[in-house]
Specification:
By secondary structure, the chain is α+β, with helices and mostly antiparallel strands. 44% of the residues lie in helices and 17% in strands. The protein is elongated and about 80 Å long. The longest helix has 36 residues. Helix 12 packs antiparallel against helix 13 and helix 13 runs antiparallel to helix 14.
């Protein structure tokens, strides 16, 4: 096969397969929030996303002691196999090249050639409906030459796709330097330039297709998961065209399980999407019977405003049958838009402030005061009114100006002695919701539908019972 045709096949082959693979990887990495003891103070939240290149490096290190290329290994997709071969080449600094292209067979050999016999062969097995690794010559007899023939422009585009989502002005010279520093592999400027342009082309195509796919995605949710809610909200622009305004989803199994088995407490939070097309992800996260993370519903909106929070809370109120909020607890950072929407829709809910946000707000004017955090957390974690009064006096003695600013934050809304009985949850922070948001950092860098599917898989992993079907296959019409 000619080199030009091969490059073209590499460019179009499995371009959407990476989403399926990344979803599986993201769900496998899910971890519940770390519990904090009575005398521990949680670290301040950091919403900065991990670098995609660093994430890949960590993933390769985790696999160091687990041979994914062992003879007899199986793979759900060809893309998964190719990704593992690529990670092998990068982690071992080996020059690998593909020498067979076929719909059901693929093989890789040492790119240096000569007497090196390293080879790997994989083919599709009809009976198991998986790709099976059937041949492998494990050892190289050559010395790494600092090159890798797998590192063509489509591969570079795939490696730097998420980085270019966040930084579209990343130049070829920077890409070339990152490849050299991270993997000790030499690439050409032209390769990096073609890879960059190809990645930007993919991104542009993604954004054009996402809105069209979103309606189909919502419809498939309703069909595959009976009793669920999936709404695409739009408005008309001057040309009379539908423009995306918001997407809301609440899966029936998550909703019903929360109502039957979880605590009557909901954490609300908004977090920015890390994409070229910006937006905000609104999440509602509950606590299961073990007081751990339980995702309930989520929405994507253009910005975090009073109107967007009002829209989200109205949908949540209807799905969870919250009525006026009586008997339920809401934990949030009490942003102005959220506070106003709560007062309008759930006036009788117990609305707790997140103490971590209280600390961050107060620190703006008292950053150099060492005892600020422990004093405020002592007030929040007081169990009785007398203990609360004692800790308030300690703060007053420590610093009067700090005391006055803390009192303006109304500690009755974030201290335990004033909580109503019935929620069976003593949390004074919104750590569960923030932990969930941190686990979907990688998803938040994706375009709309892949991001929503990643989040859905997270929710599926955390459910207590029932069955959520796999509802979306990327690339369907």
């Amino acid at each position: 096969m000619k080199s030009g045709k091969r490059d073209k096949m590499d460019e179009v082959e499995d371009t959407l397969g990476r989403f399926e693979y990344e979803i599986e990887e993201s769900v496998a990495d899910f971890e519940d929030e770390m519990p904090t003891e009575r005398n521990e103070i949680p670290e301040s939240s950091d919403d900065s996303s991990e670098d995609e290149i660093d994430v890949r490096e960590k993933r390769m290190k985790r696999r160091k002691n687990h041979d994914k290329l062992a003879l007899g290994s199986s793979y759900y997709t060809l893309y998964e196999f190719k990704e593992i071969v690529l990670e092998y080449a990068l982690s071992k600094r080996r020059n690998i090249k593909q020498d067979r292209w076929d719909k059901t067979k693929v093989s890789f050999v040492c790119g240096i050639g000569g007497k090196c016999k390293w080879r790997i062969y994989c083919s599709y097995d009809v009976e198991s409906q998986k790709w099976l690794l059937k041949t492998r010559y494990r050892y190289h007899s050559c010395t790494p030459d600092g090159k890798c023939k797998l590192l063509k422009s489509p591969v570079i585009a795939s490696l730097f796709l998420d980085k270019l989502r966040q930084k579209a002005d990343l130049m070829p010279e920077e890409i070339q330097q990152i490849i050299k520093e991270k993997w000790k592999i030499v690439s050409t400027r032209n390769q990096c330039q073609r890879g960059r342009l190809l990645a930007l082309k993919w991104l542009e195509k993604e954004y054009e297709e996402q809105f069209a796919h979103l309606r189909g995605y919502a419809q498939e949710i309703m069909v595959s998961n009976q009793g669920s809610t999936a709404i695409v909200d739009t408005y008309k622009n001057k040309a009379g065209e539908d423009v995306f305004n918001g997407f809301y989803v609440c899966f029936g199994i998550l909703r019903d399980t929360w109502r039957g088995y979880c605590r009557p407490i909901i954490g609300l939070d908004g977090t920015f999407l890390k994409r070229a097309v910006k937006g905000v992800l609104l999440t509602a996260v509950g606590h299961d019977a073990n007081n751990q993370i339980y995702p309930i519903s989520w929405a994507v909106v253009q910005s975090e405003t009073t109107d967007s929070w009002l829209w989200f809370i109205k949908k949540l109120k209807h799905d969870l049958v919250l009525q006026d909020g009586n008997g339920f607890v809401i934990i949030s950072d009490r942003s102005k838009g959220l506070k106003s929407a709560m007062e309008s829709e759930l006036p009788n809910a117990e609305h707790r402030k997140c103490v971590k946000h209280i600390v961050e707000n107060v620190k703006k004017n008292h950053a150099k005061k060492d005892l600020l955090k422990p004093r405020i957390w002592d007030i929040a974690r007081s169990y009785t009114k007398s203990e609360f009064d004692y800790n308030v006096r300690k703060l007053q003695v420590y610093d009067l100006a700090l005391y006055n600013d803390v009192m303006k934050e109304l500690p009755e809304t974030w201290s335990r002695p004033f909580y109503k009985l019935g929620s069976c949850c003593e949390d004074v922070d919104n750590n569960a919701t923030e932990s969930f948001n941190s686990t979907i950092t990688k998803a938040r860098a994706k375009s709309m539908v892949p991001m929503l599917e990643m989040i859905r898989r997270k929710g599926e992993k955390k459910r207590l019972g029932g069955d959520m079907k796999r509802i979306y296959k990327f690339g369907w019409d």
